[in-house]
Amino acid sequence: MKKKRSVFEGSMVALVTPFRNGKVDEKALKGLLDFHLKEGTDVIVPCGTTGESATMSHIEHRAAMSFVVEYIHHRIPVICGCGSNNTTEALGLIQHAKRINADGVLVVTPYYNKPTQEGLFRHYQYLARRVDIPIVLYNVPGRTGVSIAPETVARLSKIDTIVAIKEASGSMDQADQIMQLCDLPVLSGEDSLNFPLIAIGARGVISVVANIAPRLVKNLVTAALNGNMEEARSIHKMLYPVSKAVFMETNPIPVKTALGMMGKIKPEFRMPLCAMRPENAKKLAEVLKKLGVVK
């Protein structure tokens, strides 16, 4: 079997979207992008789950995608979140990503509808046939209510422009089955499993924790991909507590709270998301202090 080339690999950040007074805070967003460029993040992934795309209007979503692509200006790749539970709406977002010269798109499984495996296949096939841009599948059944079966991933892997899958099912078995059935590069979408998933063959991560500690996540991924497993394991142990803490409440509530504690953004949310419970914020602060990112 011909090995599918890994178009995107390494440490990729599932970027938060900072808000201020109900609008996207472009000044804070620039600051976050500069932070990632300085700290060695390999790929920026805006407007995904962590970017609160589900609470953004389509105008805002497109504007945020454009802002990030224009500001990064091909210094590193940008993969724009373009998923929707409506295939036609997803197509519109992907077409916009193509127009602004994004490097790729991240397309989550359609949520709420609970499509069949055949429906999932047709959804992605339809999108791939209509826009020539690298597509990363995104499997996160805890958020969408449906999981892409490894057999369906294998079918989709035969489409040239489908270049990877972000696996956030939390199942090592699911990821391993995908690797057994096809050559599609797997990217970890579950921070606590970044190290073990790379150990069994994943080519990188799309990380929430990278918002907080981009250099450490980068070092873990680089070490693991280079086979330096003792170094990678050591960093994994260091990052594991924060990888659990950032999911103490619904993502991205804890990670935006953390960035607020670090002075990088105003931790503003859009309903139905809301501020973190004080007792959980206190626990999060203790984890961040141990990691050394807040005083």
Structure report:
With 295 residues, this protein is of the alpha/beta class. The chain has a single domain (10-226), classed as TIM Barrel (Alpha-Beta Barrel). The protein has helices at 26-39, 58-72, 87-99, 117-130, 141-144, 150-156, 172-181, 194-199, 214-225, 229-245, 253-261, 278-291, and strands at 10-14, 19-20, 23-24, 43-45, 79-81, 104-108, 135-139, 162-167, 186-188, 204-207. It has an 8-stranded parallel beta sheet with strand order 4-1-10-9-8-7-6-5. The chain has a two-stranded antiparallel ribbon with strand order 2-3. Helix 1 packs across helix 2, helix 3 (87-99) packs parallel to helix 4 and helix 9 (214-225) packs antiparallel against helix 10 (229-245). The radius of gyration is 18 Å and the shape is globular. 48% of the residues are buried. The model has no long low-confidence stretch (mean pLDDT 96).
Search tags:
single chain, 295 residues, alpha/beta, TIM Barrel, 8-stranded parallel beta sheet, two-stranded antiparallel sheet, 12 helices, 10 strands, globular
